[in-house]
Design brief:
heterodimer, B: 0% strand
Chain lengths: 261, 176
């Protein structure tokens, strides 16, 4: 009975070695902070990955060299409007302008879900954005600089039960709290024409800026459902992308979170 | 074990305990005097520069950073019911910033005050990280002796309030 014992011992040793090797390989690539953030995200949208998916979530957690989702993004986020009842809708067809510290300016146009992004490929020969960044959304300047975060949702967090548990003073509609600016909110009625992009809004569609349905914020990841209105998917691009159209109203207001409903 | 042995062990243990306690007492009583530059100057002039340039939500305006800078457009004070972007930066937030900055390297900050013209200020982690001379995720934030640098360094060295105010205002004016 000695030989089988020896074989079993060798097999166990080899298996142990392989397990250790696998653990080492995984550990080399393992970043618990990002992994935890990704795991906490709500599940994928029913339609699967698309430019409109996972609105309000931290885009670059996955669209990065670490997680490897394509396309790799330099920056990305979601722009919302807020209904009188406090619901958030993605706003389609407004420019988000990003100016980096090296003087380069990039413009991205929001799509049906309100998502916008600048891909690494959009940087056109430049390795990366030079932080800090100055951001304008539909012509309204963000109050603070962006120091290093590539996912707007990293700071503009939506409300979630988990967050409300930690901070009861959190605004349940917008997610605004002591540690977050809440959703990026604009009033589509007051977007200057120069800040509009993509196809002109469909006049037959009712609702501000041609946006359709509403989705309640609250359990994180407020996915605008039935976002009708302007048809095609607007893509992100560098300066000069997108078309005109839309209203000619001036003024406007972007709020980091706005008031309670 | 006889009675003498027990007594011997007890005596030794008592001696060790007394020695340890005395040692601790001496350690505590020797104290560490820490002095930080002017709180009033920091609160009035320097805090805003650090809030705007260092205290964004994605950098030092995060609960996850060991050095936390609070402010109106960043992280708000835990004890006050305010949200990002509401009102103005409160006195409690500015005070918290002061103590946070002083506490990065309290002994070394104290030395800067006693040697204002010396090189001590250039060795501070706060200054070196800001200048990008030390590992810093935010990279280089100040150039040595630019307005923002003079605002912070001037305060650390105890420069005149007028010169600090001038540097801080110039630094704020240059921010995009």
């Amino acid at each position: 009975m000695r030989a089988p014992t020896r074989i079993a011992s060798s097999v166990a040793r080899v298996a142990g070695f392989l397990v250790a090797l696998a653990a080492l390989l995984v550990a080399c690539r393992y970043d618990p902070v990002i992994d935890q953030k990704v795991r906490k995200n709500p599940p994928e949208d029913p339609g699967g990955p698309s430019p409109e998916h996972r609105a309000g979530q931290a885009c670059v957690d996955c669209h990065s060299t670490y997680e490897g989702a394509e396309p790799a993004l330099a920056i990305g986020g979601t722009v919302y409007s807020q209904t009188a009842k406090g619901y958030l809708n993605g706003v389609e067809g407004v420019f988000v302008t990003i100016q980096d510290s090296a003087g380069a300016t990039y413009k991205a146009c929001t799509n049906k879900a309100g998502n916008f992004y600048i891909t690494k490929a959009d940087l056109q020969g430049i390795d990366d954005l030079a932080f800090p960044l100055v951001v304008n959304v539909a012509g309204v300047k963000m109050a603070s600089l962006i120091g290093r975060e590539r996912s707007c949702a990293g700071c503009h967090k939506l409300a979630s039960i988990e967050r409300i548990d930690i901070d009861p003073y959190l605004d349940p509609a917008t997610g605004r709290a002591r540690d977050s600016a809440g959703a990026i909110i604009i009033d589509p009625e007051f977007v200057p024409s120069l800040e509009r992009c993509g196809p002109p809004p469909d006049p037959t569609t009712s609702g501000a800026g041609g946006q359709g349905g509403a989705a309640p914020a609250g359990a994180g990841g407020a996915t605008p459902t039935g976002a009708g209105g302007a048809g095609s998917v607007a893509s992100s691009s560098t300066t000069g992308a997108g078309g005109g159209g839309g209203s000619t109203s001036s003024g406007g207001g972007m709020g980091a979170g706005g008031g309670t409903p | 074990m006889n009675a003498q042995g027990v007594f011997g062990i007890s005596s030794f243990a008592a001696f060790v305990a007394v020695a340890a306690l005395t040692g601790c007492k001496q350690e505590l009583s020797s104290g560490l005097e820490v002095t930080c530059p002017s709180r009033q100057v920091y609160v009035q002039h320097v805090s805003e520069v650090m809030e705007r340039r260092c205290g964004t939500l994605d950098c030092h305006g995060s609960d996850f950073r060991p050095l936390r800078i609070l402010g109106r457009d960043g992280l708000r004070h835990q004890g006050e019911r305010k949200r990002t972007g509401e009102g103005v930066t409160t006195d409690a937030e500015k005070s918290a910033n002061y103590y946070a900055v002083c506490a990065v390297e309290p002994e070394k900050v104290s030395k800067v005050g006693s040697d204002p013209g010396g090189n001590a200020v250039n060795t501070l982690l706060l200054v070196r990280k800001g200048r990008g001379q030390e590992g810093h995720k935010g990279g280089k934030v100040f150039d040595p002796w630019d307005d923002a640098d003079r605002c912070v360094v001037g305060w650390l060295r105890g420069d005149t309030e007028q010169s600090i105010e001038k540097a801080c205002k110039a630094a704020l004016a240059k921010l995009p």
